[in-house]
Amino acid sequence: MTHGFRKQLLYFMVALVWLFALLWPLLDINPDGTLGFWRSFAAWMPIAVAGSIVFVLYQIRQAGWLGAPARMLETGRQALGARLSLIPAWVWFVLIAAVFFAIPQFTDRRVHDILIQVLVYVCLGLGLNIVIGLCGLLDLGFIAFYGVGAYTYALLSLHYGISFWLALPVAAFLAMIAGCIIGYPTLRMRGDYLAIVTLGFGEIVRIILNNWMSLTNGPNGVMAKPLTVPLPMFEGGFRIEEVALRSLGDLYYVAFFLAIITIIAVNRLNFSRIGRAWEAIREDETAAELMGVNTFAFKLMAYAMGAVFGGLAGAFFAARMGFVAPESFTFLESALVLSIVVLGGMGSIPGIILGAFAIIALPEVFREFQMYRMLAFGGAMTFMMLVRPAGLIPAKRMGKRGEEEE
Amino acid sequence: MAGDTILELKNVAAHYGRIQALKGISLSVREGEVVSIIGANGAGKSTTLMTICGIVRASEGAVHYAGQDITRVNADKLPRMGLCQVPEGRRIFPRLSVAENLDMGAFFRRRKRRIRADMEMVYEYFPRLRERRSQAGGTLSGGEQQMLAIGRALMSRPKVLLLDEPSLGLAPIIVKQIFDIVQTINQEQGVTILLVEQNANLALQASNRGYVLETGKVVMADDAASLLDNPDIRKAYLGE
Ligand SMILES: Nc1ncnc2c1ncn2[C@@H]1O[C@H](COP(=O)(O)OP(=O)(O)O)[C@@H](O)[C@H]1O
Ligand SMILES: [Mg+2]
């Protein structure tokens, strides 16, 4: 065993002790001032054992004792990969879409609820991805567009009784206007300044929602009508009737529909001339300008398009909850969407879908762990960023465009 | 061989905030010429090119190109008018592939078939780029990146090509290759070239005429051959 092993062992031990030092004050300083030991020890022990097993396995692999089986696995994996890559991407898309389409038939309310949330965040993540992943503009106030979309539907349905499907384009349009308003003054800024200003705009929108009592009813929020779909009715003559969707299973299909629309739209944008201009701006703004890209117009368009998908997701959110309040649109939500994009892989559509699952669904699944949830979540995020800094599924499309019409 | 004046700067001044980088530059380039601007670091050579391209706004004076006043024209309109720059430090798009980088050069063009033909032409000039066409631009060597930057500009089918220090940081053998290609582009395609260089010897040998820039002013303008013979120039810029 080498010097490297000793050093790793030392780090491992220090990490275990450090974990215990973190857990102990959380669990064993009782409210009445007494101190304990066993509760934190009981929490620490399984983690330590699991960590030790991983550590030992890792060392065995480093020593090369797993060489033969690892090689077999690797060749198997490559053969499988080669086979799988023969299947065109759209087949995957249809397969996965079919699975998602079927899911509600086999699952219960709790799963529907989580999946709806995931799908909403897929829309949000893909919208933000246009701004950050493609155009390279950091936006910390993205949730404002979600809020604009949500309030648009809630207010339209409440005051004018406008149905969801009519309000949807209005919500997208108003979010787009908001995107332009936020985009316009920030376009000359870069990096840190842009981050701070967008953060400020996000907060401004939330504070307006909170204080404009006559329009938004302030912190008390607004009730929104439930989502309806027009269905043909045959009893007593043919007519079309608006039917309210009340079960989560039905709402799931609406979310699914919106997510599919978003995925297709973002995919098309990604591989269009516009997407190429966005990427050039992300890579080098001045060089893009020198190549004839109107950077001002394209950056504004990135904000506007990103906001559209935020607005769509927001309108659905309002219809699904039946109620909107400013507290749903805090900075924490913006940060959550941002972490979906970063964790999933900036610029990568499948990455962001997976990222939305990881960030929205996993914490729900781990609900039993209760107080460790955020700890596990933070740990997992840190770990992922160390292991896969470019995201779960990094964007890969090298050589895709210039050569594609070969 | 040289035709009408195609690019002209009249008494152009430019500022970065309160710092004046150009103090009344006048120069002209005729169709088909290779003209070089030489000068020490910080003399304002890059600023001159950026002002021509509208990235830096002229605070005084005017820039005329092909009979039009382009002083206030936005930078993104110029490539389609036939004026394209290869900026200092190459500034290729590092995460886009070589082919995508070239494609960006033809961003404003719509005819797919002609774009493909031009890409072939660039690959003829720089066979190295063809080999690496699906590799990320940022993973190329310095010389290859310079070739890519020039190739990308050629994709816009320029009439006038502005080159900012193409020799920067490259090995002499690569520099020679690149200068050969630049001269070929000038002769075969009749592209007018305005070349900025610190390597005065090299630049003047490849040029018809030259301008010498010092702290934002043109201090000398002459035929390249005369400049090469001028004892002051030899002392100041050719290291003698
Ligand atoms: N972005 C900038 N901001 C402020 N000053 C600048 C900037 N770019 C260049 N300058 C200044 O303008 C002058 C001319 O610079 P430049 O045109 O880059 O010279 P050259 O290309 O001849 O080396 C220098 O004094 C430089 O410090
Ligand atoms: Mg320079």
Residues in helix, % of chain B: 25-40%
What radius of gyration of chain B results from the CA coordinates? Answer: 17 Å
Strand/helix succession of chain B? EEEHEEHEHHHHEHEHEEHH
The largest sheet of chain A is:
2 strands, antiparallel
Overall outline of chain A: globular
How many β-strand runs of chain B? 10
Distance between the termini of chain B: 32 Å
Number of alpha- plus pi-helical segments of chain B: 10
Beta-strand residue percentage of chain B: 25-35%
Strand arrangement, largest sheet of chain A?
1-4
Number of domains as seen in the coordinates of chain A:
2
Low-confidence stretches of chain A: 401-406
CATH level-3 fold name of the largest domain in chain A: ABC transporter involved in vitamin B12 uptake, BtuC
Oligomerization state:
heterodimer
Output mean pLDDT of chain B. 93
Largest interface: A-B, 24 and 38 residues
Instruction: Please indicate the percent range of residues of chain A in DSSP E strands (runs of 2 or more).
Output: under 5%
Q: In the residues of chain B, how many domains can be counted?
A: 1
Please give the CATH class of chain B: Alpha Beta
Number of H/I helices of chain A: 16
What value does the Rg of chain A take, in angstroms? 25 Å
Describe this structure in words.
- The complex is a heterodimer of chains A (406) and B (240).
- Chain A has 406 residues and is mainly alpha-helical.
- Chain A contains 16 helices and four strands.
- Chain A has helices at 3-28, 38-62, 67-86, 89-106, 109-134, 143-160, 164-186, 191-211, 213-216, 248-270, 273-283, 285-290, 295-321, 331-344, 349-365, 373-387, and strands at residues 222-223, 228-233, 239-244, 323-324.
- In chain A, helix 6 crosses helix 13.
- Chain A is globular, with a radius of gyration of 25 Å.
- Mean pLDDT of chain A is 86; it is low at 401-406.
- Chain B is an alpha/beta fold.
- Chain B has a single domain (5-237), classed as Rossmann fold (3-Layer(aba) Sandwich), CATH 3.40.50.
- Chain B has ten helices and ten strands.
- In chain B, the strands form two sheets. In chain B, strands 6-7-8-3-9-10 form a six-stranded mixed β-sheet, sandwiched between helices. In chain B, strands 2-1-4-5 form a four-stranded antiparallel β-sheet.
- Chain B is globular, with a radius of gyration of 17 Å.
- The two termini of chain B are 32 Å apart.
- The relative contact order of chain B is 0.18.
- The interface between A and B is medium-sized, with 24 and 38 residues.
- The structure holds adenosine-5'-diphosphate (ADP) and magnesium ion (MG).
- Magnesium ion binds at residues 45-46, 88, 165 of chain B.
- Residues 16, 19, 21, 39, 41-47 of chain B line the site of adenosine-5'-diphosphate (ADP).
